[in-house]
Amino acid sequence: MFSRQAIIKVSIAAAIVFSSLGMSPRSAGQGLQQKLEATYAITKPTDDKSDIVTAGSVVILQKDKIIMYAISNQVLPQNTYKAGRLSEGAFGVHDNVQKFGSFIGHPPPQQAQTQSRHFVTGEKFWVTGIATQSDGVVFTLFTDAYNDVRYQCTLKFVYPKGATPSTDDVLKTVAEVFKVQQDDSAKDDKGNQQPAADAAPAADAAPAADAAPAAEAAPPAPPATVAIGQTTDEVVAILGQPEKILNLGAKQIYVYKDLKVTFVKGKVTDAQ
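The chain above was modelled as a monomer; its predicted structure follows.
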């Protein structure tokens, strides 16, 4: 057993190491947390997790595969990512046992059954939590509705045994699994960035020789109205281009300054 004196010496040595790096262990963890949340903006769901209150980043899975449980289940399944490999662990084994039992005609007891879904490369979800731990980083994930069912899970990025990677290394590891979906609102149909609408004209551009006199002020336009069932084109014609588009497959959310319009299969289903 270590003596009290030996423990004190180890603590002092650790403090010296972190001091030479210009940070404490606590500040190092806080810096990683801040950088992760800056890269993967947190989404806030409703208390019953039936909808989104504040939309954060939409992340795209880059590897196969992770398991998620329906939000009605009390258990939050944990997947892991270690040495370049995703693993569903015991939760994947449990899911296979359920399927095998059903296959042979003897399903497991009702309390053991769970509504699960496996997500693979290219599928999208939200990040509702990030926790930095001594042996890794844990992301809590939440999905849009699939046949009226939302799913959730955690994914732990496990540090190599006996090592604490740098903040940059952790960010690179997470980026192997998650890609943040870029905002498409400022791109044209070919994915090219559109130039700013208010770009200044060239300095040597000559003014028009005979500028037309200012037109008389037109009467104020009626207030814009968005209705359930309208198409995306109709909404854009009324409100203009949105500040942000959240693309979730069959569901899209157009975010304006004071309004959030939800489309399902190209038609308005909600406006808040």
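Confidence is low (pLDDT under 50) at residues 15-25, 108-112, 185-203.
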